[in-house]
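Reviewer 2 asked us to include a model.

Predict the structure of this chain.
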Amino acid sequence: MSMSSQVTVIGLGNMGTAIAQALLDHGYRTTVWNRTASRAQPLAAAGASVAKTVSDAVAASPLVVICLLDSAAVDAVLHGIDGAVGRVLVNVTSGSPAQARRTAEWAHERGASYIDGGLMGDPPDVGTLKMMLSFSGDREAWEAQRSTLEALGTATYYGEDPGLAAVEFLAQVAVGYEFLIGLLHTLRLVREEGVDVAAFAERVAGSVSGYAPLVNAFGAAVASGDHGPDLGSLDVQAALMDDLISHRESLGVEAVRMREVKRLMDRRIADGHGDQGFSSLFEVLQGDGRAE
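Predicted model (structure tokens):
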């Protein structure tokens, strides 16, 4: 078996185990290591080799995939490695762009290539197109290992800056959380009014797809600085905000986000841009990172 078909997976939580199993399923000679050795037993039964130490694990394969709980765990494991010269380290542990750049520097100082990655999906999705993977870092290493990493799902390379994959991952996840916490507050509002929450949620699910064109339009507007009236002019939208705020507050439902939107609208209108749309609030956000 050629060296190009050998992969090591460090970290055997649910996601790391799924990665190792997917590699085994694709015919890769897979070595695994986990701080708690018992986690490796099912993979050993499936054909994986189990390294006794993390240094042995790194030495076993030219490609090393690291999937741990957080960046602190990554740092702890990496500092236990004796050597990594000539290895390609692919870290798919979630972390910040700054952490990715620091880890890349650590790897380069030790003669290793570094690729940072983000995984958007659940463990059962690994090895299918449903698993979305973002990668960035050493381009030559990416090109060399691309086919192996694509065996894990739908992979996209964002550039040589090792922090770009983390930017993509954190931003994508943040959009989801922003939407979902807003949804939960709104479901509380609906329930307080005695409306069938499940039925309302089903109607929202049916309308969510309509936001896709708006997302693209907002991206283009922010990139160009040309803000059309999108949802309607701010002069008109601002009038609605008072109703949204008062409705929530009358029922004791959180209204912080609505008040933020109203403040931003008022500032943009006061600056003489009441004829523009919601995307133009981006211009108010720049420079201070908060609503006042």
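Strands lie at 6-10, 29-33, 49-50, 63-66, 88-91, 113-120, 132-137, 154-157. The two ends are 62 Å apart (CA to CA). We have added this to the supplementary material.
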